[in-house]
Amino acid sequence: MEPTSALLSLDTLKKVISGIMTTRPDELGCDECFEELDRFAELVLAGKNAAEAIPLVQDHLDRCQNCREEFEALLAALGALN
Q: Most buried pick, 11, 31, 39, 77, via CB within 10 A?
């Protein structure tokens, strides 16, 4: 029997499989997404449809919790300045 720490939980395994099955050939990585976050946030704050203007960033934010948290922090900081 393998050590417990080497086994994936069913929930983790489902997330990994879901990520693999929904991967797109044109999706952004975290670095590329981060480069576009300021422009994306400015569009959101201006009341524009940022998801339509930069759909690959929206797709990445939907998939990546770390980048989504960075975006939300940026949005809050920019919103506090206005």
A: 39
In angstroms, the Cα distances linking 16 to 13, 22, 64 are: 5, 10, 13
Domain span at residue 37?
26-81
> For every one of its 82 residues, what pLDDT tens digit does the chain have, with 9 covering 90 and above?
455 555 778 887 777 676 665 566 678 999 999 999 999 999 999 999 999 999 999 999 999 999 999 999 999 999 888 6
Number of domain units in the chain = 1
Q: Would you say residue 33 lies in a domain?
A: yes
Question: How many Cβ atoms are within 10 Å of 46's Cβ, its own excluded?
Answer: 8
Cα pseudo-dihedral 42, 46, 51, 54, rounded to 10? -50
Global pTM value: 0.68
